[in-house]
């Protein structure tokens, strides 16, 4: 039981990062039904922005979070305006191919500009001490970084829920996701609303990229590929297009991964994750929190 609880603690910290990335996927899909495969690479860009802020500008990690979120948000809006907006009325396949192309462009552009070297954040940015925990009389351990990752994720999710449900921009986002044409007739600027969605999702990806870089103590230009794909799996598991679904899917996937690594083999972690995606699509295509909607034609 102690080993099980310890793996759950480890899984929550990893799942928190997946949940933050999955939120960007699910927000964009909820608005324009597009899987933005460049989202993981925006996360990579956010991690590098933070690295340059702390290494060259000599600012602390909290300034790095803020500047990285702003920079990634601007990058997300730029990608949306250049790559996706001109295809707004195209067939569903065209934006999907463009998203894959944009992902490859960012990855290879990152390799050309940043090089292939693996870099690490400077030590001492965040205290990472071992903290003893006692749960049901069992002694467990968690690091301050793990608790910080979980706390930041929860705070970010609360902020997003507030924006979506209690602000004018959030109401516009919900209206556009429900019916973009009707929202436009009601005076909502659909293009600006979509850009705002990309900005928010990209800012969340930047936070995830920094946390991932701190968690594994490495960043490199291709770091967004696998976490981005796994976050997409998390969004599908929870119910793509649903913000609570992204949260549930991220936490569930993180715990599932640590269980596979702890009780079986870390080499089988990635194949089993994608096998889980196939099973979910076969058994419950709408995800754990999603509902199958019947459409009349």
UniProtKB/TrEMBL annotation:
Membrane-traversing stretches: 12-32, 63-84, 96-115, 145-164, 194-216, 228-252, 272-290
GO cellular component: plasma membrane
GO terms assigned for molecular function: L-isoleucine transmembrane transporter activity; L-leucine transmembrane transporter activity; L-phenylalanine transmembrane transporter activity; L-valine transmembrane transporter activity
Keywords: Amino-acid transport, Cell inner membrane, Cell membrane, Membrane, Transmembrane, Transmembrane helix, Transport
Organism: Neomoorella thermoacetica (Clostridium thermoaceticum)
Pfam families: BPD_transp_2 (PF02653)
Name of protein: High-affinity branched-chain amino acid transport system permease protein LivH
InterPro entries linked to this entry: ABC_transp_permease, BCAA_transport_permease
Protein family according to the UniProt entry: Belongs to the binding-protein-dependent transport system permease family. LivHM subfamily.
